[in-house]
């Protein structure tokens, strides 16, 4: 393999968008009491992405992908930035068609299906009918983490609808995976002291992505489809992690894949540094004190240290 070359293509692929939403997106329904609605309740569908404020520029790119609809707001107190779309016409014409054409593959697909059902009821102006709000509440109770304690006070006879089953893919679109990894993935350099090494240090690269146990079948599928990587399960935290730590797999498979199908956002800087460290290891520079110091410098500016 020659020196790693990174793509300069700034256009986000539709599957990349879906992968990033699988990692960071949320489909939700907002309720509010309103005298102007016959049911006494106002219902609003919302699609949103919440990330650290350092990735504001990435949200601007995603907003551009979605024809500039929606708003981006910064929460300086919590160092967060939110991209939100709530206008029903934008949801009907742009958001729903996108995720119908480029489906989600985590359990957020189930949330999307339920959310879309509520949007259909909103489109029909269902609040004019006697049972409209009840039907919406029953669907909302199965969406995300269910209804809030506040809403449960007003709606006591709730019958949750059944969530749709998510089909585990037999192949992975690399653009989707790049988007997914840009959201939930991590590139990590591990430097440890070693008595068996001439320079007293060993270096190990790791790329990993974790998910709640509800998506552990997807994590298992990643390892099977890619043909490399290891699955670790934390039963106490209900969490599963797909980790790639074999250097040959990282250098010959993972890095070329992400160089072609891009990591985006601030995490792309971590990926570039990860690639620099991989080149040094490939050249055996990590076996010298000078090389170790260079890798330590690279590690010192990655991940949380970068921010």
Write the layout of secondary structure elements.
Layout: H1 14-24, E1 25-33, E2 41-52, H2 56-65, E3 71-75, E4 80-85, H3 88-101, H4 108-123, H5 132-140, H6 149-154, H7 174-184, E5 185-193, E6 201-212, H8 216-226, E7 230-234, E8 239-244, H9 247-260, H10 267-282, H11 289-299
Q: What is the rounded distance between the termini?
A: 32 Å
Would you count the extended β strands for me? Answer: 8
CATH domain class name of the largest domain: Alpha Beta
Radius of gyration: 23 Å
Largest sheet, spatial ordering of strands: 1-2-4-3
Q: Largest beta sheet, briefly?
A: 4 strands, antiparallel
Q: What is the CATH topology classification name of the largest domain?
A: Endonuclease I-creI
- Give the domain tally: 2
Corresponding CATH architecture of the largest domain: Roll
The helix tally amounts to: 11
Low-confidence stretches: 1-9
Report the β-strand fraction as a percent range. Answer: 15-25%
- From N to C, what is the helix and strand string? HEEHEEHHHHHEEHEEHHH
């Amino acid at each position: 393999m020659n020196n790693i070359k990174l793509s300069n293509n700034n256009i986000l692929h539709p599957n990349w968008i879906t992968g990033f939403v699988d990692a960071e997106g949320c489909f939700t329904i907002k309720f509010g009491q309103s005298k102007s609605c016959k049911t006494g309740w106002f219902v609003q569908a919302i699609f949103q992405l919440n990330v650290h404020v350092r990735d504001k520029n990435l949200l601007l790119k995603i907003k551009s992908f979605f024809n500039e609809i929606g708003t981006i707001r910064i929460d300086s107190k919590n160092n967060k930035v939110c991209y939100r779309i709530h206008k029903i016409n934008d949801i009907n014409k742009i958001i729903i068609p996108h995720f119908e054409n480029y489906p989600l593959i985590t359990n957020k697909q189930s949330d999307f299906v339920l959310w879309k059902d509520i949007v259909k009821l909103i489109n029909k102006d269902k609040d004019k009918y006697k049972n409209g709000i009840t039907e919406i509440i029953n669907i909302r109770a199965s969406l995300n983490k269910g209804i809030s304690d506040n809403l449960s006070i007003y709606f006591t006879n709730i019958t949750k609808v059944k969530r749709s089953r998510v089909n585990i893919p037999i192949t992975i679109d690399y653009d989707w995976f790049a988007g997914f990894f840009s959201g939930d993935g991590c590139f990590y350099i591990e430097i440890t002291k070693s008595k068996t090494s001439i320079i007293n240090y060993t270096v190990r690269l790791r790329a990993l992505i974790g998910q709640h146990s509800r998506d552990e079948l997807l994590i298992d599928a990643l390892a099977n489809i890619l043909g490399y990587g290891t699955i670790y399960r934390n039963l106490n935290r209900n969490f599963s992690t797909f980790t790639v730590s074999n250097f040959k797999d990282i250098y010959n498979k993972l890095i070329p894949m992400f160089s072609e199908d891009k990591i985006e956002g601030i995490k792309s800087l971590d990926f570039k540094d990860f690639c620099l460290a991989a080149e040094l290891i490939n050249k055996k520079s990590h076996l010298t004190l000078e090389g170790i110091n260079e890798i330590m410098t690279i590690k010192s500016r990655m991940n949380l240290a970068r921010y």
